[in-house]
UniProtKB/TrEMBL annotation:
Organism listed in the record: Biomphalaria glabrata
Pfam families per UniProt: C2-set_2, Ig_3
Full protein name: CD276 antigen-like isoform X3
Keyword Glycoprotein: yes
Membrane topology: Single-pass type I membrane protein
Gene Ontology BP terms: cell-cell adhesion
Every Ig-like domain range: 141-246, 258-350
InterPro entries: CD80_C2-set, Cell_adhesion_signaling, Ig-like_dom, Ig-like_dom_sf, Ig-like_fold, Ig_sub2
Keywords: Disulfide bond, Glycoprotein, Immunoglobulin domain, Membrane, Signal
Localization terms from the record: Membrane
Signal peptide: 1-22
SMART domains with a match to the protein in the record: IGc2
């Protein structure tokens, strides 16, 4: 018997426990809870068959002595709700429907963050059913501002920029950097240094989270016209940064002006056109281009004739001079190109040289005057007692009536020389012939 009574008590207790959970309550925020806006908390319930909820309480921090609202929910909606004097003006009943009552909270502020609201439903005969929701006030990130911006720098100095922004709450975001050149997105230079730190001010409340991010880039001429932009990202508001900083407010970005990297004039290139052999009467153009920012100015000088004025023309970034009707004595020689620029009040000069070699014009011109051709005859004579021939040149001009006589005389001279050579080598026949000839004379 005692055992049966024990099991009966267990059955009664279990049944009572099931009765406690015959009313289910839930709470949810119907709108986003962004600072400065309104939020709506809905309290909903469902009851088992035969159950009739009687009263609903909306209370902050589960304080039964400070119920903001007490609603009689056993009747047909709209339900009658009474506001407690402790509830601020910002609280009101938004809707009262079958199975739900909604509370409106206006003008959310940081002081509302973290408040836990309870919805308590009771039927007066059983323990109440309770549900709660914590109000987390969301603070969006702010538009970033730039400071300490230095984009006009000398080569090997640092391009700098500091970006400061509120990155949002309760989920804090971050600041990211992107680079652009001539309006096109480019990769961040690998040598760029980025540092970030908390930048909250003493007067900031807990919902204000500021971050400061700084970039430093040692500039070289390859960084010319590069522009840096910082973007604020936040998981709740803007998870990723857009491709470009088009609108600072909607894109949450700030962008620097394009970098101007100045550097002294250097790396001169000199050439002439045409590059082939130059002849008198021809035309040539000398070209000179040097690197430098600001762009250099140019001047040309003919070495040894420094007072000569040369007409300089700029062809884009190339300085040119053109010489026409070349004259060997006047135009041949060395020319210097001087490039000059000024960087941070310092003057820089780069000199380059180019030489012009001008050949005489070998083109023959026709004439109406007939010139007598020149004939060149070479006679070779070997001196006595040597084996080395000696060259002797005889030049004659033909074209008159004595040509035949001249030729005969030359043949005789050649014959005499030859015989004289043979006599010296014991050729008796020739010597006798030579002696006979001389005796006849």
């Amino acid at each position: 018997m005692p055992g049966l009574f024990k099991w009966f008590l267990i059955f009664v207790v279990a049944t009572c426990c099931l009765c406690v959970h015959s009313i289910d309550v839930s709470t949810s925020w119907l709108t986003d809870t962004i600072i400065g806006t309104n939020a709506t908390l809905q309290c909903g319930w469902t009851a088992a068959t035969g159950e009739t909820p009687a009263t609903l309480f909306l209370s902050p921090n589960n304080n039964s002595n400070a119920n903001y609202f007490t609603c009689e929910i056993y009747s047909v909606p709209p339900h009658a709700c009474t506001k407690d004097p402790s509830a601020l003006e910002k609280y009101s009943i938004a809707t009262s429907l079958r199975g739900s009552v909604s509370m409106l909270i206006t003008k959310l502020s940081c002081t509302d963050d973290g408040t836990q609201y309870y919805c308590i439903v009771s039927n007066n005969s059983k323990p109440p059913a309770i549900s709660n929701s914590v109000l987390r006030v969301k603070v969006p990130p702010t538009v970033p501002t730039l400071s300490n911006v230095q984009t006009g720098v000398k080569e090997n100095s640092s391009i700098t920029a500091t970006c400061t922004a509120g990155v949002g709450y309760p989920k804090a975001g971050q600041i990211v950097w992107k680079a652009y050149r001539n309006g096109q997105s480019v990769n961040l230079p690998p040598e760029i240094v980025i540092t970030s730190m908390n930048a909250s001010q003493p007067e900031d409340d807990k919902c204000t989270v500021r971050t400061q991010s700084s970039v430093t880039l040692k500039a070289n001429r390859l960084h010319q016209n590069i522009s840096l932009a910082c973007f604020v990202t936040n998981q709740d508001f803007k998870p990723t940064a857009p491709d470009t900083c088009t609108d600072t407010k909607s894109d949450l970005c700030a962008q620097t002006e394009p970098a101007v990297v100045t550097y002294p004039v250097s790396k001169m290139n000199l050439k002439r056109e045409p590059a082939s052999t130059l002849y008198e009467g021809a035309r040539v153009t000398l070209k000179c281009q040097a690197e430098g920012n600001p762009l250099p100015t140019y001047s040309w000088t003919k070495i040894g004739d420094e007072n000569r004025k040369l007409f300089v023309v700029m062809d884009g970034l190339v300085s040119t001079i053109t010489l026409t009707s070349l004259n060997k004595s006047l135009d041949a020689g060395d020319y210097s190109c001087k490039a000059l620029n000024i960087v941070e009040n310092e003057k820089y000069i780069f000199l380059g040289f180019i030489s012009l070699i001008i050949d005489e014009n070998i083109t023959q011109t026709s004439t109406t005057i007939q010139k007598t051709p020149t004939t060149v005859t070479t006679v070779t004579k070997t001196p006595t007692g040597t084996g080395s021939p000696e060259a002797t040149t005889v030049i004659s001009e033909s074209g008159n009536s004595s040509n035949t006589v001249s030729m005969i005389v030359m043949v005789l001279l050649v014959f005499i020389y030859r015989c004289d050579f043979i006599c010296n080598h014991n050729c008796s026949v020739c010597c006798d012939h030579l002696s006979s000839t001389e005796s006849q004379r």
